[in-house]
Amino acid sequence: MKKDILTLLDLSREDFEMLFELALELKKRHKNRATDTPLAGKTLALIFDKQSTRTRISFETAMIQLGGTPIFISAKDTQIARDEPVRDTARVLSRYVDCLAIRTYSQNLLEEFSKFTTIPVINALTDTYHPCQILSDILTVIECRGGYDDLKITWVGDGNNVSHSWINAASVLGLNLTLACPEGFFPDQKIVEKALGKGSCKIVITSDPVEAARDADVIYTDVWASMGQENEHIARKQAFKSFRVDKRLLEVAAKDVIVMHCLPAHRGEEISEDVLEGPHSVILDQSENKLHMHKAVLKTLMSR
Ligand code: CP
Ligand code: NVA
Fold first, then answer.
1. What is the pLDDT of residue 199?
2. Where residue 297 falls among pLDDT bands split at 50, 70, 90?
3. Which of 42, 84, 161, 280 makes an SS bond possible with 68, Cβ 3.0 to 4.6 Å?
4. Does 160 sit in the ligand 2 pocket, CB within 6 Å?
5. Are residues 177 and 50 in the same domain?
């Protein structure tokens, strides 16, 4: 496996499979109250430039459960916010800690960190991708459906960072992915073309959420306005109003469809309250699996 996880294209199909297997094993051991401390004496720094509940706390807890120490760093309290060059911060931190998890706006900034560090760098969300989210989400799909081959996976909503990581995953794993987004809010064409160029996946993009949801085994949604787009929220509410995941979409989906959302959710916007809290929702399992998957990621990247 490569040194970093900047996007899911850094992983091969074998890497994905190894991480799923390890996460399931670590989950089982955790449920049996077994203690594993392979990262004793190691430190993970989390540099976050955007808010987070799940990603931050699951990475911190993962590190503690593996015997290591997390250090949370709010980017605005560092010299990064006073324009210290990334190359200096990256090289200094490489002398202190063993791994960096970074949540920031620009994917380029994350890549610059990676270029100048000697330690692994993990993308904990950028404007363009959210790779670790999709790793834990596919783990949830595996648990609920026994695998991911032959499933119709449907994304409903904004062609955003989370959707881009689904597209990357589709290209590596050969998934059947349909995305329903309003005109003007499609995923990045370059990311889609690159995925299609690999040949083995099926990616359909449409503006018809009902057709996208028809016979879907998985329906996934996310907020209409991501972090950094707060001032577009009102305009987006108008553009996305027919892209709510609600009963109407569940009625045309497969009978045992699972409904997913990375959270945080806006009830009554991208998802209705009854669907979020209903029997098809596996949303809290997704959140739990972030802990187990982050343990698998940290153990793999940091044990070397
Ligand atoms: N799903 C997710 O990344 O949530 P947080 O923003 O709370 O970390
Ligand atoms: N697309 C959302 C995901 C939050 C986990 C955002 O970037 O805000």
1. 76
2. very high
3. 42
4. yes
5. no
